[in-house]
Write a sequence for this structure.
């Protein structure tokens, strides 16, 4: 392969380019959009055209006023015969800054049970995973020094709180359970989509992910390519649908049923 003068010059420019100040680009604070009402909903998950899972979610407020999300999920249908999994998760978020307090998640597989506890502090996040039968890492705590950082629940609440005007971008760091990622969501437009037996006005969001390593530099996500998410374009901004391109193909999640708590 020949190296031209132009390609050599491009390589020199790349080598001497300053590192991206991604931390300075983060969206700093929640927006002013009205909070999500307490609700219960169900979602279906799939891979290509195959339905593979189901989740029941319960979003509520605790007596202390914290925002709580309980999720119960499982693999279903033909996928369950190949990969049996049942899971529960509880996430608690502070309403003032929409930052998480902690997440406790339990996954039960045919040959293993995993309990993951993630605690979010003012300067770091700590994750402890216990497995049965126990492996070498069971019970050990992994720490990641960075703040502010979100779980998936707080990230959704934070994103929906923003103005979400056409072309705007929301950037935040998310720690789902094991690693940190820079999530960048761009408002791609408004359109109508069909889920849960209805046609919805929706906000279309494009999602990009990059892994954040311990040195706080960005790395390419090896399994994730891109994703599109849709929020209802109304007073609730409820999550309607997600489509993602990953290493194994196209995966999706659709809202199937929902019910808001009466009088709340």
């Amino acid at each position: 392969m020949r190296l031209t003068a132009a390609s050599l010059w491009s390589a020199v420019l790349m080598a001497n380019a300053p590192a991206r100040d991604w931390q300075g680009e983060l969206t700093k604070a929640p927006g002013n959009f009205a909070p999500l009402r307490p609700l219960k909903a169900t979602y279906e998950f799939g891979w290509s055209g195959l339905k593979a899972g189901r989740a029941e979610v319960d979003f509520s407020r605790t007596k202390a006023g914290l925002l709580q999300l309980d999720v119960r999920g499982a693999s279903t249908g033909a996928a369950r015969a190949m990969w049996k999994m049942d899971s529960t998760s509880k996430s608690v978020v502070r309403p003032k800054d929409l930052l998480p307090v902690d997440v406790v998640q339990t996954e039960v597989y045919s040959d293993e049970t995993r309990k993951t506890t993630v605690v979010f502090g003012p300067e770091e996040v700590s994750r402890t995973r216990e497995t049965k039968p126990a492996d070498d890492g069971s019970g050990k705590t992994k720490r990641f020094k960075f703040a502010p950082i979100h779980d998936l629940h707080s990230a959704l609440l934070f994103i929906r709180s923003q103005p979400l005007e056409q072309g705007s971008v929301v950037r935040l760091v998310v720690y789902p359970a094991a690693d940190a990622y820079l999530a960048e969501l761009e408002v791609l437009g408004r359109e109508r989509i069909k889920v849960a037996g209805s046609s919805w006005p929706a906000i279309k969001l494009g999602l990009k992910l990059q892994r954040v390593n311990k040195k706080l530099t960005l790395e390419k996500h090896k399994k994730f390519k891109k994703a599109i998410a849709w929020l209802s374009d109304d007073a609730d901004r409820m999550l309607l649908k997600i489509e993602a391109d990953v290493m194994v193909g196209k995966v999706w999640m659709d809202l199937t049923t929902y019910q808001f708590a009466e009088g709340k």
